[in-house]
Amino acid sequence: MTAHSNAQSKPIRCALLGLGHGHCIDALKVLQGLDEYEVVGVCEPDEAMRDRYKDRKELESAPRLSEEELLNDESIRMVAVESDVPRLLRFGRAAIDAGKHLHLDKPAGTSLPEFKRLLDEAERENLIVQMGYMFRYNPGFDVIRRAVKEGWLGRIYSIHASMCTDLKPQSRIETGHHPGGIMLELGCHLIDTITLLLGEPERVTPFLRQDGRLDDGFTDNTLAILEYDHTMATVETHAMEPHPFPARLFKIVGTEGSIVLTPLEPPIARIALRKPAGGYQEGVQMVEFEDLDRHVLDFQELAACIRGEREFPYSKEHDYQVQRTVLRACNVDV
User: Fold this and answer.
1) Is 148 helix (H, G, I), strand (E, B) or coil?
2) Is residue 112, in this structure, part of any structural domain at all?
3) pLDDT given for residue 7 in this prediction
4) 64: which strand partners?
5) Domain of 122: which CATH number?
């Protein structure tokens, strides 16, 4: 084995910067379980946030690092930023400035100019920024993307996407840092997928309401209409639906067929076609896909891209367009 190939096979040293994101514990567990990575430690600069997580058993095996230790350790090649949303961009920029590849959980903060500066700096330094949009690595959405690319459904004219939840009072307070509320928190996943399929919309019309029982100012009932030349897409998300996960769906309709994905995890698809396409028959068929753990495939792909084994598939332009659309859906003037 050559020195180069030996270096390629060594685990990539990585660390978590920030806690507080809904995905932070899951991300840590996945990284600790993958042969591609060696988790050096976890850094949470905020004492109150550290105290909030002090009893989490998942963190017991992860050494604690200061922010200075993490950023100054040249052996750490990748940083996963898993903080609460208001700190995502600050921590992400710190990782990029320190020369680290970056997994940045979603959404990309609330400042479009700051996100653009982060992306521009990463591009200048030849560093990868991977956003934490989990549906990019979901086999049900893989079929939808293939169907659109290969034209199974004809001309797409309608998408309806719904991703709702049932937030506890404390989670509503923590998520209520931005007027976009639940649209910012969950709608971003759906907007990422729609943008991958259709590009950036020509017009975005948001409807942001509070209709839940709690008088806490949290925007908990939201809808955004994304308009394209021949397509209208609706993104629906609200925060007080009982047992919401089985009802999450993504429906895409064209002149030659439709796909309804529900639930989204684990994905089950209803594929309806006027004529056979893509190995599927004319008519209606139900297709169940493998129930994959979140974040495994995205972190594995990131490792392969860091090692130069494959090209990173998501462009800076795409991530910027997604974030601009997310903020427009949150009624932010961008």
Assistant:
1) helix
2) yes
3) 53
4) 42
5) 3.40.50.720
Q: pLDDT by residue (tens digit) across 280-326? A: 999 999 999 999 999 999 999 999 999 999 999 999 999 999 999 99
DSSP helix, strand, coil percent of the chain (3-state; round to 5): 40, 25, 35
Flag whether 318 is in a domain.
Answer: no
First CA to last CA distance, the chain: 52
Q: What is the CATH number of the domain that holds 219?
A: 3.30.360.10
Contact 142, 298 (CB under 8 A): no
CB 81, CB 27: distance < 8 Å: no
Residue 329 within any structural domain of the chain: no
Distance CA 43, CA 53 (A): 12
Contact 104, 31 (CB under 8 A): no
DSSP strand pairing (283-288 vs 257-261): unpaired
Distance CA 58, CA 156 (A): 44
Distance CA 198, CA 202 (A): 11
Tokens of residue 92, six digits: 């992400």
Other residues' Cβ atoms within 10 Å of the Cβ of residue 203: 10
Q: Phi then psi for 187, rounded to 5 degrees?
A: -60, -25
Q: What is the pTM for the complete model shown? A: 0.95
Dihedral over Cα of 31, 166, 108, 68: its sign: negative
CB 298 within 8 Å of CB 136: yes
Cβ contact 95:76 at 8 Å: no
Count of domains observed in the chain: 2
Burial status of residue 312 (CB atoms within 10 A of its CB: 0-12, 13-18, 19 or more):
middle
Give bridge partners of residue 269 from the DSSP assignment.
Answer: 261, 287
Angle at which helices 112-124 and 85-97 cross, to 10°? 20
pLDDT digits over 131-145, tens only?
999 999 999 999 999
Asked if residue 19 belongs to a domain, the reply is yes
Task: Tell me the CA distances in angstroms from 134 to 124, 142, 296, one per residue in order.
Answer: 26, 12, 10
262 & 156 share domain? yes
Tell me if residue 91 falls in helix, strand or coil: helix
Do 72 and 140 fall into the same domain? Answer: no
